[in-house]
Specification:
homodimer, 217 residues, alpha+beta, SH3 type barrels, 8 helices, DNA-binding
Chain lengths: 217, 217
DNA sequence: CTCAGATTTTTTGCTAGCCAAAGATACGAT
DNA sequence: ATCGTATCTTTGGCTAGCAAAAAATCTGAG
């Protein structure tokens, strides 16, 4: 499988997870910053090789084989992210680009030994689940902070947006995975939220809250 | 720089080190298992970009810029080999193919942090020197075992051939980096050598001895 | 010096991946 | 139902990388 094919499979996997159904040509083109015509080209190739189910004008979905392949790429990406953060002291906003490269290294032995070396982690530095070597993914129950009701206690477990800008904002505000958060109140006008973190009350925008996953406690 | 360009630079570097002078198109083609026509194509590109000095029919050599780039690729290759052996329990005959992939990952931060994580090693698992982050290479004094005189004590410090077959032979005969070897005698007929390793006398062929580097003690 | 053989370069043609433009299809509004 | 628009596919063409074959160049023996 070529590097380009792997990137398409991964993108389709993420878009499918987000939408729950078939993915459109344009959605793929936008996400990959390429043109729809290029996507159509590739979808035909992937379909010929039985990685995806593709019907003209109808969108695309992964086959069983394609789904497993995509999960293995995600597995590699997230394990490398753990390596970078846990072992090489990268910050969680610095790992994405390097992991994008490392995820294409082909060696089952390598990735399984890396998995063991890291202690078989189940989540990456952003809280996303790491598929195990058979492809199984253990999803964690999580809710967007923007949906939590006043008075509720919760704990930060993940981010929806993992851009460096957002992650740096969280660092600056001392919000990390595992941080306890108490929802205090919502401002009706702009949907901003007052929350309490470690005896500290702060106000965060709706945009921030709708990109932060928490679990209720 | 593309993956293909990196592989050419690395090959030219190794061939230059071995021959000491300009490298021929055919020598590169043979080493890379490709055709001379492909090599000529690439040499023109590399020359346009000022990585190599190239004159038609005259062979090729690295520019200052090309030499540094080649050393950085070798640095990455060897550091990843150390990682695979020291941290992931790979055997020294298993690391080459994976390191060939990992050497192309582009991130100066990654490679320098990996270097620190590994304790700034100066040699890879086969005894070859690792260029430091400025490109400096500390060559170790070494001699082929086939050139050692009878009665001489020495210590294994590297291999010339690092194929899996040769490395496995050394494993089977309990020869590793650091192993003490005493040269006993040479058989005139086939140049085979009798040596002593840890109170054990064995006979090795000339071919083996001429692929094993030692330092005299 | 000349020419045969070896080496190197050029030519030609293939595949992968990408894109612009043009044509085909789907779908909502009327 | 059909029209208009948004979306998707096809066509044709581009570049990079690779290789077989032909042409050019070099080299050494005589």
């Amino acid at each position: 499988m070529t590097l380009s094919e792997e990137n398409y499979l991964k993108t389709i996997y993420h878009l499918t997870a987000a939408s729950g159904s078939e993915v459109s040509t344009n959605a793929i083109a936008e996400k990959m910053e390429t043109k729809a015509s290029s996507v159509t080209d590739m979808l035909k190739k992937l379909s010929d090789k039985d990685w995806v189910n593709y019907k003209k004008y109808q969108g695309v979905s992964l086959t069983q084989k394609g789904l497993l392949a995509a999960k293995m790429i995600v597995r590699k990406h997230r394990l490398w992210e753990v390596f970078l953060v846990d072992k090489l002291q990268f910050a969680w906003d610095e790992v994405h680009d390097v992991a994008e490269q490392l995820e294409h290294i082909k060696s089952e032995q390598l990735i399984n030994r890396l998995d063991d070396f890291l202690g078989n982690p189940t989540k990456d530095p952003h809280g996303d689940p790491i598929p195990d070597r058979s492809g199984k993914v253990i999803a964690i129950e999580k809710v967007l902070l923007s949906e939590v009701l006043p008075g509720q206690d919760c704990q930060c477990v993940g981010v929806k947006d993992s851009s460096a800008a957002f992650l740096k904002y969280l660092d600056n505000n001392k919000i990390a995975l595992g941080t306890q958060i108490k929802m205090l109140s919502e401002e009706e006008f702009d949907l901003s939220l007052k929350i309490e973190i470690e005896q500290r009350q702060i106000v965060i925008s709706h945009k921030i809250a709708s990109n932060l996953y928490v679990k209720l406690i």
